[in-house]
Amino acid sequence: MHETDMTKALILTVKGWLAQQPEQATVERVHLTVGDFAGVEPASLQFAFQVQTQGTFLDGAELVIKKTPLIAFCHPCQQEYRPDIGRQYSCACCQSPMDDIRSGRELKIERVEFSQSVAA
Amino acid sequence: MHQTFDAVLEMNLLHANQAGADANRDRLDRWGITCLNIMSSPGSGKTQLLEETLRSLQAELRMAVIEGDMTTQLDAERLRKGGTPVIAINTGRACHLDSKMVAGGLHQFEHEQQPEAFDLMFVENVGNLVCPAEFEVGEHAKVALLSITEGEDKPLKYPLMFREADCLLITKTDLAPYLEVDIDKIVANVRQINSRAAIISVSAKTGEGLEDWYTWIRQTVTACANRSIAQMV
């Protein structure tokens, strides 16, 4: 269950970012991108996030996970294709290995939505 | 009144681990040590392969091991018998080594040994085909093991590990006569996701293929040493 460690890393990153903000802010939503080819299970991440943020500065914040498909580029065929995860990764047309991954490897904190009190 | 804002971070989730891994690699480079991260599922033969390797190469290379184990020191004790310095790291509930744990191991290594006298460091990761693939520890190359008893489909089921590997060792080949396993199929499955890795079939029991594995190690150590020298001048 390394999603626990991933979540710890996520919380630390957001904490670091928050500390750099000049004004006090409340984090409302954290947007993650998780590729289908990353070694992470989004449902486990959600669960870990809920548990690990309880009673912290992120208590009540929402974790929004955008999944990206595995897309590879076949150089001999000069076209993108979608490997069949767990079955076939090489190009279905020419059998070339999956060398060039164009999407699906992401494990990224895209953005943070936060609220701040402003003078009316 | 409250207003909602948006901030773009675009940061890798494993940013902190990556930074730690880079720092470990810098340290190893300064000492002139090549580091290999050895990964596989439990029971595929990492420790026995290391026992053989340490025994065979100890006359030509000065080696040390960082041993990751969830709770015991059993593997570390096995490897120490040959006289090689072994730093044991109990990972507790963590199913992989991360760069911070290995940094602690390197610190201990520096304290107990003279690091500059060493050529090669093996990091024996926790037995697991999933997690270690995502956590770099500061290695110069990744070595994955797959024993032939695990089946031909494992590279397809756990692609990340086999894609990341610089060297894949197909182990326990002495068992081939007793199994219905097609080693060519294993190789073909690995090649679907990794066209560049060296693939070597070995048996630590009979010694088959080990010379090829040692040749790969020598080449990797030489390539690392040359790169370090190139960086210094």
Automatic annotation (TrEMBL), chain A:
Keywords: Metal-binding, Nickel, Zinc
Binding-site list for Zn(2+): C74, C77, C91, C94
Keyword Metal-binding: yes
Binding site for Ni(2+): H2
Pfam families in alphabetical order: HypA
Any GO MF annotation of the entry: nickel cation binding
Function: Involved in the maturation of [NiFe] hydrogenases. Required for nickel insertion into the metal center of the hydrogenase.
Name of this protein: Hydrogenase maturation factor HypA
Organism of origin: Phormidesmis priestleyi
TrEMBL record, chain B:
Keywords linked to the UniProt accession: GTP-binding, Hydrolase, Metal-binding, Nickel, Nucleotide-binding, Zinc
Transmembrane feature ranges: none
GO terms for MF: GTP binding; GTPase activity; nickel cation binding; zinc ion binding
Domain (CobW/HypB/UreG nucleotide-binding): residue spans on this chain: 37-200
InterPro entries recorded: CobW/HypB/UreG_nucleotide-bd (IPR003495), Hyd_mat_HypB (IPR004392), P-loop_NTPase (IPR027417)
Pfam families the record matches: cobW
Any one biological process term the GO annotation gives: protein maturation
CDD domains associated with the record: HypB (cd05390)
Family: Belongs to the SIMIBI class G3E GTPase family. HypB/HupM subfamily.
Name the UniProt record assigns to this protein: Hydrogenase accessory protein HypB
Species assigned in the record: Phormidesmis priestleyi
